[in-house]
Amino acid sequence: MDFTFTEEQQAAVEAAGAVFGGVAPDGVPSPALTAGAVADDFDRALWAKLADADLLSLLLDSAYGGAGLDAIALCLVLRESAKVLARVPLLESTAAVVVVQEYGGEETKTELLARAGRGEVVLTVAANGRTGHEPAERAVTARQDGDVWVLDGVQTAVAWAHGADFVVVPAHTDDGRTLLALVPREHAGTVLGEQISTTGERLGELRLESARIPARRVIDAEGAWERLRELLTTGTCALALGLGERVLAMTSAYTGKREQFGFPVATFQAVAVQAADRYIDLRAMEATLWQAAWRISTVAVGGGAVGTGAVDSGAGGALPVAGDVAVAKIWASEGVRRVVQTAQHLHGGFGADTDCSLHRYHAWAKHLELSLGPAAAHEEALGDLLAAHPLG
Q1: Which of 103, 234, 269, 324 has the most CB atoms less than 10 A away?
Q2: Which residues form the Acyl-CoA dehydrogenase/oxidase N-terminal domain (predicted)?
């Protein structure tokens, strides 16, 4: 398998590096030093720079002003964003517009996509359900009433909800279908409460009380929710990789200049072995991420929708895409935790100083780990897939 990135994908990385190069995580207060959220809104100035660099429209078709790239390009940019803990809804908004583009109605696409690519409209996704321990689509019910859908339920821990214009809400119908409703932030029948994440960012608890959403803003298509969920999950793995790479680089720099007994501690075998183990973690996270992103990019939308058990053409006998995503989640969830824990240990007391940016990276890593879920659960899901799809 050729993992060489295309010229377009490499250009996206270069553009992302230029945009994120001036972002300093030290400039944001530590969540441990604030009484509430670190900020009321996401970084609007950075969002505008991403729009100017055409990084918000990477996955949009040219008809909407986009570059027509794939999930690999998105993950490459997300990896760069995580290195500086960029406070923008890049993953959520991009994943949402991709699903609107692939499954939405023409009126909604015309209304939203080009504007989203220019940064004028921001979307986010309610992906955690009522408690974070149940399928998100089971937390909200949907029933049709003429040309509107009526939604009732609660979605918790909605990322960037207080700054987004629309929240994509999965909901289930009586006959077991899953819909995706584009709910405006301020809409009759909706109440948005405040929650604070491990990172110190504002999350939203979205309560829907007979909220009436026009049918044109509801996506009722098989595979749409699975597609959105797997884009979000794979993107989160990319964030974990970028964060982990930055933390290991910080650890290498610190241990290279910190001396004990007249020598840099990086020259001590115990330190070198721990750093080497974390390097191996990162390389495994990287390999499994690109495998998952490649599979998502090559499986066609439609009859064999992502996540429904379909495989890409020519890959007879392969696992469904969900299998590759599960492997990426296993490595990302475990790997990012091990990387930041080792970094804290090798930084010594300095790593526990809340004035040090490592403290923020540790908080973001924990948030990503919790978002991905426990590796044991993904291993069990992978085992079920292997049992259902034995490899020849």
Answers
A1: 234
A2: 39-120
Mean pLDDT across 70-91: 97
Which residues have CB under 8 Å from 44's CB, separation 6+?
none
Alpha-carbon distance of 78 to 86, in angstroms, equals: 9
Measured CA to CA, the distance from residue 204 to residue 227 in angstroms comes to 23
- Whether 210 has a pLDDT exceeding 70, the answer reads yes
Share of the chain above pLDDT 70, in %: 94
Asked, for residue 2, whether it belongs to a domain, the answer is no
Residue 319 lies in a domain: yes
In angstroms, the CA 358 to CA 342 distance is 12
Boundary residue ending a domain (98, 122, 146): 122
Higher per-residue pLDDT: 301 or 329: 329
Q: What confidence score (pLDDT) does residue 301 get? A: 58
Q: Are 150 and 212 in contact (CB under 8 A)?
A: yes
Q: Are residues 276 and 380 in the same domain?
A: yes
Contacts of 26 (CB under 8 A, 6+ apart): 357
Q: What is the tally of structural domains in the chain?
A: 3
Range of the domain at 323: 224-388
Q: Which of 32-46, 195-209, 310-324 has the lowest mean pLDDT?
A: 310-324
Domain presence at residue 274: yes
- Helix (H) / strand (E) element for 194: namely strand 190-196
Question: 198, 219, 240: which is the final residue of a domain?
Answer: 219
Q: Strands, E, within the chain: which ranges?
A: 123-125, 140-145, 148-159, 166-172, 178-184, 190-196, 202-214, 218-219, 259-260, 263-264
pTM of the model: 0.93
Domain match, 257 and 336 both: yes
> Among 5-14, 183-192, 350-359, which is the least confidently predicted range?
350-359
Element (H, E) at 218: strand 218-219
- β-pairing, 178-184 vs 218-219, is antiparallel
